[in-house]
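[job 0412] stage=complex_fold ligand=manganese (II) ion status=START
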Amino acid sequence: MGNIGTPLIRFLLEEQQDHPEATDEFTTLLSQISRAGKMISRKMSRAGLANVLGVTGDVNVQGEVVKKMDIYANDAFKQAFQHGAQVIAMVTEEDEDPVAFPENQPSGRYIVYLDPLDGSSNIDVNGPVGSIFSIHRINDGASRPTNTDLLRKGLDQAAAGYILYGSSTMLVYSCGKGVHGFTLDPDIGEFLLSHENMKIPTRGNVYSVNEGHYQKWISPTQRFIDHLREHAPDDGRPYSSRYIGALVADVHRTLLTGGIYLYPGEAEKPEGKIRLLYESAPMGYVVEQAGGSASTGTERILNIQPTAIHQRTPIFIGSHDDVSLAETFMRDGKEDRQ
Ligand code: AHG
Ligand code: MN
Ligand code: MN
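[job 0412] stage=complex_fold status=DONE, emitting structure tokens
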């Protein structure tokens, strides 16, 4: 495989030689995504100077206040795909309906699902944010995406990944052959291989959750977190707690150091907050490819059949053993309630 420092596009071209099923089209598509990532990264690095802070005054399809950077990021991806010949439709958090790219037909074979800017409330406090992408290939012969093309299980993803705008900017992706991370060298404007074949520890010692919602959780979730906080040194407990409030940043840390991130359902809101097609499924794909797990608490995230493009799911994601333990608590809780 590649050497540390290999530019993203060269790495993809080399991967194409080893795996003939990887195509030029796919390499071009990832380079379009990386270009949008570079534009967002550059804009973000000037966020304190440029007039990009604050809200637009609009609300998005989720009923949440839209930040100016959400719009900039959404547009950066649209521009990257327009006339790029690969993407026929983009499903994004910021647009209620899928965005079609008729100019990319009939050559385009891909639908991209995007959270263009994840964790955007961190922007005003100079905290890390991210972009999340999920890529599906449509059937050969199809000219426009049907509902069946749009509502596909996470297991069918051709590739998925994220860009983290942190103390450095990183692009992490998988196309089903492991997980690779690239760090942006701002001097030359290229993503360079920095983390090859990333693997998540089987078990960690950190949990990551918005604990302010504790009283709103169902009792199995409360019991699981209570368990991780217990003093049991022989069992590696208590766990530490870390919460950035940006899924990309919290899952990236979990991928590197192990443990579990959760955004559970609540008694009054069983579906939780995190969106299936452009948050849970792509992050689940990456973490599974690194040897970890992603679950709703009772079901594998990648096996959920979506019914709506902006659908939400509870999520428990991270080290295999930590997610399995959470599932035990959630399943036991189900029996309690019967
Ligand atoms: P987004 O900024 O794309 O709407 O996503 C925010 C999500 C996710 O990134 C994060 O983990 C979670 O919301 C934080 O929510 P709380 O503020 O409820 O903890
Ligand atoms: Mn998000
Ligand atoms: Mn977002």
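The first helix runs from residue 8 to 18.
[job 0412] exit 0
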